Structure formats: C-alpha cells, structure tokens
Amino acid sequence: MDLIRYSKIDTGMKREFLLLQGTGCRWRKCSFCDYHLDRNDDPFELNKSVLESVTGEYGTLDIINSGSAMEFDERTIALIAEIVKEKSIKDLWFETHWMYRNQLESFSSNFPCKVHYRTGVESFNPELRMKWNKGIGRDVTPEMIRRYYEGICLLVGVKGQTKEDIISSVDIAERYFDYYSINLFCPNTTDTERDDELAAIFINELVPQFRKSRKAEILIDNTDLGVG
C-alpha cells in the first residue's frame, strides 16, 4: 500500500507536514519501531514528487522520514533548501535521533530559514528508555535534551509502562519543551506489546487533560497527522 506523504495541519502549530524517505535509519535499534522499513538507497524522485506539493501557505514546513534528517540524500537536502527559499518558508522542522545532537548546527546551515528539531525521547523514565533501546543514556536529563531540541516525541500504551510514567513524562515535556507529541503505540511487526488497559486509561482519562495544552499533539493512530 502506498503511503500518504503530504498533509496540512491547520490546528495548533499550523504547518505543511511531509513524510519523505531517507536512505535508512542508522540507529535502527528501538525495540518498538519498524518505521525503518520505509527507506531507499536513492529516494530523490519520490521525495521530489512530495516536495512539489509544498505551497508555503503557513510559512512552516515540518519534514520527517523513517529515521533522522541527516539520512536524507544530498539531492533531497538541496531541494528542500530550494523549496524553503522559493516558498518563503520561515520555520523548518526536522526530527533526528539523539546521536546526531552535535550535528544539528552544521545541518541547519543548509537551509535559509530558522531550523527546529525534535527527537524521540519516548519516555523520561530512563529505565523504559533502556528497555526500549532508545540510545539515550540513563544519565541524560531533560535539561540536556533541551539544549539541542525544541520538541520531543513520547510513546504511551506499551506493556511495562504505567499511568504514572505517562503523567510524569508529559509534565516534563510541558515544562521543558516548546512542542511535544504523545503517540499511542499501535501494534506492528515488532515483538513489542500494547497494554490495552493502559491505552484505555490514556484515551478516556488522560487525553482530555492533555488536550488542554497548546504545546501537545496527541496521536491515537499513527496516521492522525495525515501521513503514513
């Protein structure tokens, strides 16, 4: 099935949102993730077809791939820069793994606009991060992450997680970051199991509370932002 790769988000942080292809996630160890299957050694033509849809309507462009922004091919990076200039994009968002944190400034220099980054923290409980093989050490604090990233992604509804874990992580995200997404785990090809009881608590008890934040985006399904 072909993936939807372009959408417009007209609530919260209004933006055009693109799912492009990278050349492959270099980390590829997260126990819950199979997004890395969406890759190509030469994804430029596909990416070009998606980038041609950008209008610049909101002045903000948010580009993800199934990995990190640094894993785009050179032609895609150059075309993104052209589109940013041509469509008068003021703010450009990318997502990267924590291991790329020291490359953000250099990567930003490719683009003639303000560049923002988010990373998949998934949880501020270090034991969960270690269990999920996130590659973000136990000693990494929210303050350390904030030095590099303005936004983060959280994962909820996984067996072994608790309601208290979720509340604590969202509270930290609210205090330290400008933007965060809360993503309910959807079963996939990995061995990670969803906790359906916790998922129900999240949807029925926590989501109404979390929706009050202007910083939060909540994804009950992977495609809730219109791509995937």
From TrEMBL:
- Molecular function terms from GO: catalytic activity; iron-sulfur cluster binding
- Stretches assigned to coiled coil: none
Question: Where is each Elp3/MiaA/NifB-like radical SAM core domain found?
Answer: 15-212
InterPro entries annotated for this entry?
Answer: Elp3/MiaA/NifB-like_rSAM (IPR006638), rSAM_sf (IPR058240)
Q: What is this protein called?
A: Radical SAM protein
Biological source species: Candidatus Ornithospirochaeta stercoravium
